[in-house]
Amino acid sequence: MSRALILMYHQVDTPATVQEQRFCSPPAEFRRQMLWLKQAGFRPVSLEAILAHVADGAPLPEKAVHITFDDGFVGVLEHAWPILQDLGMPATLFALPARAGEVNDWMAHRDYPRRALLSAIQLRLLADEGMTIGSHTRTHVMLSETPPADAEKEIADSKRELEDMLGREVAHFAYPFGRFNADVRNMVVRSGYRSACSTRSGFNKAGDDPFLLRRIDVSGTDRLWHFRQKLRFGTNEASRLRPLSYFAGRLAARLGQR
User: How confident is the model at residue 247 (pLDDT cuts 50, 70, 90)?
Assistant: First the structure.
């Protein structure tokens, strides 16, 4: 059975604080992960290809994978994109049009460092060079805790604003903080998007909900063995005991069928 992995990153840069390490992958480690994907036989595909497989059963290569970035930090342009271009790997960035050229203020209350977000000019540059730009709402609100009218405006207006900014369709969405409910999902559908990415882990298969695409959360603290294990098992959690518990579970299931 064909299935695809979508990887989720945030910032790619040198972490400024210990606290920031969770969402900030060092460029050297990011390159190491991308090189391992190539060497391990993963096949980079577009988000459109994964959507076609999920929605319509279109064929995918074995070990299909796609790279995504949430929030739109400048480090993606400065550090991640050159690596991806060198390796011929497509990617999608979910941007915040109302915060273009500003900073990550929504993280300030948690004492994260202020980081620059891509400007409209930089977003257009990435789009012109082949990166897919999707929406992450206008301002990075928690949609499930926002009044419905305001939530729908964040979702719909961000699509229109990005399309005006880029001069091209914006078809893909990612839920900020990974928080959503059935009403929020339906708002995304009504706003004209064709897919939405969650933060739920797992593989994406034909027949899955295209507005609940699963992603593997890659932390800035992940070492290569964490990264390999997350991709092998389609999980956001990695530990030394994970393979043992996985295979013990499979053995128990087989024995139970006898």
Answer: very low
